[in-house]
Automatic annotation (TrEMBL):
One of its GO terms (cellular component) is cytoplasm. Keywords: Cytoplasm, Hydrolase, Metal-binding, Zinc. PANTHER family: CYTOSINE DEAMINASE, CYTOSINE DEAMINASE FAMILY MEMBER. Its main location: cytoplasm. It comes from Mycolicibacterium iranicum. One of its GO terms (biological process) is nucleobase-containing small molecule metabolic process. InterPro entries: CMP_dCMP_dom (IPR002125), Cytidine_deaminase-like (IPR016193). The keyword Disulfide bond does not apply. The lineage of its organism: Bacteria, Bacillati, Actinomycetota, Actinomycetes, Mycobacteriales. It is found in: Cytoplasm. This is tRNA-specific adenosine deaminase.
Amino acid sequence: MTSAEQMLDVAVEEARKGLAEGGIPIGAALFSADGAVLGSGHNRRVQLDDPSIHAETDAFRNAGRQRGYRSTTMVTTLSPCWYCSGLVRQFNIGAVVIGESRTFTGGHDWLADNGVKITVLDDERCMTLMREFITDNPELWAEDIGE
């Protein structure tokens, strides 16, 4: 079985890819119940000029069709926004592992209230990536979170 920290490593690597591409450093991965990576991805809103490609949606799309999602875990470097929280609820993803929620708190409390198992790791790598990005790119960050 893969630990939450090991799963987060996949998402952090995706976040770093996004940053290297000139995008927003948020990464995600969808895992099966036995810890296998079904799909991973990163926020590509800037790179593809498509506001719908958040890290979680990219990972979800890259996972392809699954018979069901209740036993899967979405791992993301940042608390999922309402859009991505809706994806988790729509497809009944059973658990979400969050790298950090200090720089941004999305809908993870709502997910927990609706039966999704939530784990927040407070990972320093994730916080550093986001804090530096927000400081260097405040307008782009505001656009990403709809402000």
